[in-house]
Amino acid sequence: MAIEDNGAATSTSVLSLDGPSKPVAGEQIEEVRADLKNNSSKITTLIEDSAKTTASQDILEEISPLPSNSNTNFISRQSRGQVNF
């Protein structure tokens, strides 16, 4: 397209990029939803299992408020063999 203004010719071009059509986008969204649904149970299992590990237990004990009897924490760690004498 050429536009003339005051005798000077200016050339402009319009670039048009086609995006995915709605049906394709809709199919992609459905695929993502299906993947999330299938993987969510695996993720939940990993999260639940991680809470059972010794390292997770130690972290939870460290960030939890101390019980009224502070020996409880020591005894718990001793029973798992984590206290060195």
Automatic annotation (TrEMBL):
Q: Where is this region: Disordered?
A: 1-25, 62-85
Q: Where is the composition biased (Polar residues)?
A: 66-85
Domain of life where this protein originates:
Eukaryota
What protein name is recorded for this chain? Uncharacterized protein
Q: Which organism is it from?
A: Araneus ventricosus (Orbweaver spider)
